[in-house]
Amino acid sequence: MIMRRLLATGMAGGLLATLVCGLLPAGAAADDGEPAAQPAPKVELVLDVSGSMRATDIDGQSRMSAAKQAFDDVLDSTPQNVQLGIRVLGADYPGNDRKTGCKDTRQLYPVGPLDRTEAKTAVATLAPTGWTPIGPALLAAADDLKAGGDGTRRMVLITDGEDTCNADPCDVARDIAAQGIHLTIDTLGLIPDTKTRNQLSCIAEATGGTYTTVQHKAQLTDKVQQLVKRSTDPVVTPVATRGAGSCADAPVLKAGLYSDRETFSENRWYRVAVPPGRELRASVTIADDRAVNAGYGVLLRGVTLHGREIVRDDEGGTGRTDAVSAGIRYPKPKADDDTPPETVCLQVGNSFSAPATVKTTPGLPVELVIDLVPSPDQPSDVAFFGLGRGWWLLGLLTLTGGIAGLLTGWVARWRTNTGRAS
């Protein structure tokens, strides 16, 4: 038993070394050069300053006071490389005219390098005032964040109530997601009711963000700090594309990660050039970011330019998942002559439907992954499920770990037997 445990430990150590080395980019272990600079992440904090923020139910103080104190702490801890801005809603108009109140949003501090003193001074001037135009504030904040740069974009909405204007902020969030700017919206509810909680959850889900209920100032501070720092995490941003109604008009895609939008029961087409000696691997995921009818499916198939089907996969869902995926593989054998790449038409379809009360626009979010790897019958520099070059070294590490575990086990067993004999 001891020997088995130690053997397993040795094998695990070897495999761990394999994984750690393999997950590094090709040549990373031998390259001591400086890593490429990451684009500066952008974050905008969107704060509700409506009249209801006067309520004194957060640790014995008003919601506005708790938010101000939390903002001071967050501004002090914001990483240097984060470009941070602040937008407010309901901060200026105290009257009863809905049309005017629903335009009450402004940028308090522009998105950019952070001057902590200036930002704190701006926050200190705020006082609970007016309406809660969440939808208009989301649209304006999206415009604040979309300009320039390829860094991550994140919006953090802090509010104590639902939107008091005509626009459904959940639909607004879907429209923002459909713009293809890859903006994540996180929402924090200050002791909200069920309707507010549902609305904020929907906003977050529409953009891949998170929703959190906050009841104490420390919770608010910790959560906003966490979300701001999360913006610095490296992410792979999909490239926005738009499929066509036919293969002839479809965009040509290279290996990479792509995003699109597809309406209910729609088919979209994309093209990929597959060189001889390469295998096309493609997968698609369609998310149901709103209420849909149970019983739906996703289709991914590859066809020739003449319409002959090469490969297909279709997967169904029952309404219990947030997304459904399909994937295909198509190898192109190596030719002896200068055979040109083969154009493969990829069709992405879905059979989603929704209740009559659910808006079908914008379309459902689509994520498409395209990869071209050496065909199975060709020599490959990829092994261990795509762990990269240097596969012989990684295999040696695994073997070494296994032998070390075996030897350690035999030594432990020998010592155990020697002890018993004495």
From TrEMBL:
Please give the name of this protein: VWA domain-containing protein
Tell me the leader sequence span.
1-30
Any one Pfam family here would be VWA_2
* Source organism of the structure: Actinacidiphila epipremni
Q: PANTHER family of this UniProt entry?
A: CALCIUM-ACTIVATED CHLORIDE CHANNEL REGULATOR, ZINC FINGER (C3HC4-TYPE RING FINGER) FAMILY PROTEIN
Q: Which InterPro entries match?
A: CLCR, VWF_A, vWFA_dom_sf
UniProt domain VWFA: residue ranges: 42-227
Transmembrane region(s)? 390-412
Q: Which PROSITE patterns match?
A: VWFA (PS50234)
List the SUPFAM superfamilies. vWA-like
The yes or no answer to whether the keyword RNA-binding is present is no
Q: Tell me which UniProt keywords the record has, alphabetically.
A: Membrane, Signal, Transmembrane, Transmembrane helix
